[in-house]
């Protein structure tokens, strides 16, 4: 657990910092949009302050969320993995963001690589297995590098491919794509990896599958998620 001294040397209250970080990561807003929203609530901070807060506290919040969720969902997340990759421009050059979600849409891992080949696929799958264990089924597209990497891992028989089987992970790319447009792309590979990891944890925390639950259930789970967020890094 993170020590209470996390906010020790900051004049701004932890509640405002958490609110600013949540607005920036959870919603497709720019830093200046967050500054304006906070100003409407009587909070006077600059967009550069919001940038500093998310860089400083975003990874801390994400790590705490991830610690709790990995322990709770470790058994369930091994049923089925959906794996896919998308290209992302970093300073004008094409990079690849590899992502895996489980059967419920929980984002398990996000890794950025410069190449889209067997070595990159193997690196991603090894990291996924190390954190979450071995899956019973792995759904991928027909990209040959997945087959080669799974063969090296001794899990080739677990692979499934099909035209619409991987819609779960392809749809999960959409929230990240919206954030990418709001941020006007990325300038460094390191910043892309950092934001992708933080964004996936925050998305998991607030993703309530509202289309599959009643209104009353959704309101309860949303309130619980917000309450947990307000307690992050509080001791």
Automatic annotation (TrEMBL):
One of its GO terms (biological process) is DNA recombination. Residues 79-207 form the DDE domain. Keywords: DNA recombination, DNA-binding, Transposition. The keyword DNA-binding applies. Pfam families: DDE_Tnp_IS240 (PF13610). One of its GO terms (molecular function) is DNA binding. Involved in the transposition of the insertion sequence. This is Transposase IS66 family protein. It comes from Ruegeria atlantica.
């Amino acid at each position: 657990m993170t020590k209470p001294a996390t906010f020790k040397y900051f004049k701004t209250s932890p509640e405002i910092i958490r609110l600013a970080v949540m607005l920036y990561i959870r919603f497709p807003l720019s830093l200046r949009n967050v500054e304006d929203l906070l100003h409407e609530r009587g909070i006077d901070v600059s967009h550069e302050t919001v940038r500093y807060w998310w860089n400083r506290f975003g990874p801390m919040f994400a790590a705490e969320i991830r610690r709790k969720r990995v322990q709770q969902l470790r058994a369930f997340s091994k049923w089925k993995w959906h794996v896919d990759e998308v290209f992302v421009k970093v300073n004008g050059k094409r990079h690849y963001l590899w992502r895996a979600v489980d059967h419920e849409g929980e984002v398990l891992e996000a890794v950025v690589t410069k190449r889209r080949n067997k070595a990159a696929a193997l690196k991603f799958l090894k990291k996924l297995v190390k954190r979450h264990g071995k899956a019973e089924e792995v759904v991928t597209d027909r990209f040959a590098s997945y087959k080669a990497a799974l063969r090296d891992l001794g899990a080739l028989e677990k692979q499934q491919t099909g035209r619409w089987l991987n819609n779960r992970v392809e749809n999960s790319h959409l929230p990240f794509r919206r954030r990418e447009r709001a941020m006007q792309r990325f300038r460094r590979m390191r910043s892309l990896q950092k934001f992708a990891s933080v964004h996936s944890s925050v998305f998991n925390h607030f993703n309530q599958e509202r289309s599959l639950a009643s209104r009353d259930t959704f309101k309860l789970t949303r309130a619980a998620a917000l309450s947990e967020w307000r307690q992050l890094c509080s001791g």
